[in-house]
Specification:
With 299 residues, the protein is an alpha+beta fold. It is 45% helix and 20% strand. Helix 5 runs antiparallel to helix 6 and helix 5 runs parallel beside helix 7.
Length: 299
């Protein structure tokens, strides 16, 4: 007969306690046996009887030696393989690790379950180039204040972490609100390392918007104000435009019948390309050829 070791019992206990706690504010679905790829629970928070946001959970039973006390502030830590963190980094929803202290066996129900906000920590600090990474936390839920702690988790922490996930793609996204009339909320103080991606996304969004606005304005001339807004935004990026962006600015000027402005854009971009020390001679020639094609289309 197969034997079950103590570590497996501890892990099983920790997972069920965590699932029971989260079930007060979430729909919790255990990962099917045999399909565990670093996750134990699929969760969907519930606010005002309405399904809200999804997140994933791994549960770890930890010994007393993993408990921290820094200046009277209680916390916990766990060491993860860096490959595990990279897997979690790729996920489309937030990932959390719940650390359940188990000091004796049979166990007593924990006074605190600690929460590592894996997604938030990766967005904030990245993943070091090493085999093992220690993550620590001073956040969690106390049994004595459980409902309030869990409400804060699903109402603030999960929406915040769901929002900052988009920073990696250069998108600044507000917290998901069930109330459409509520003022949008944003997480601040994190993700500045993604500012170049954010600027690129603003540029590309303005390019896309300018194309859409040109199409719509042919049918509804009142949409000109929308086109001009996108045009003004895109013009700010004159030193960092790709061919599509340049083409859209030229097309917008041509749409207004301002051929001189269209030619001026091409001339300015030609000067920028010729003076750039950041692109290769081959790439420079490709860009100049594209600009010449644009200029020829104006005649």
């Amino acid at each position: 007969m197969a034997k079950v070791d103590l570590n497996r019992l501890k892990g099983n206990f920790a997972e069920h306690v965590t699932a029971a706690w989260l079930s007060r504010v979430c729909l919790v679905r255990p990962v099917a046996e045999g399909t565990d790829i670093g996750l134990d629970l699929y969760c969907e928070s519930v606010l005002e009887s309405t399904p809200y946001l999804h997140f994933w959970v791994q549960v770890k039973a930890i010994p007393e030696s993993n408990i921290l006390d820094e200046g009277g502030k209680k916390g916990a830590f766990f060491d993860f393989p860096a490959d595990q963190l990279r897997y979690w980094e790729r996920q489309p929803i937030p990932v959390y690790v719940f650390l359940v202290p188990i000091g004796t066996w049979p166990p007593v129900f924990p006074a605190t379950i600690y929460t590592i906000r894996v997604t938030e920590q990766i967005i904030r600090a990245g993943i070091p180039e090493q085999k093992s990474v220690r993550l620590k936390t001073f956040e969690g839920s106390d049994a004595s204040n459980l409902d309030e702690d869990l409400r804060e988790f699903v109402e603030k922490i999960v929406p915040s972490d769901s929002s900052i996930l988009f920073l990696r793609k250069g998108m600044v996204v507000p917290w998901e609100n069930l109330d459409e009339d509520q003022e949008p909320r944003y997480t601040i103080g994190i993700g500045f390392q993604y500012v170049e991606k954010i600027l690129d996304a603003i540029r590309d969004t303005a390019t896309w918007g300018l194309l859409q606005a040109l199409t719509v304005e042919r049918v509804d001339p009142k949409k000109k104000i929308v086109r001009k807004r996108f045009e003004n935004i895109l013009s700010v990026f004159k030193d960092d435009l790709h061919n599509w962006g340049i083409s859209m600015l030229v097309r917008s000027a041509h749409f207004d019948g301002d051929i001189d402005k269209a030619k001026g854009i091409i001339k300015e971009q030609t000067e920028i390309v010729n003076s750039s020390a950041l692109i290769t001679a081959e790439e420079k020639q490709k860009r100049l050829n594209s600009l010449n094609i644009l200029l020829s289309e104006l005649h």
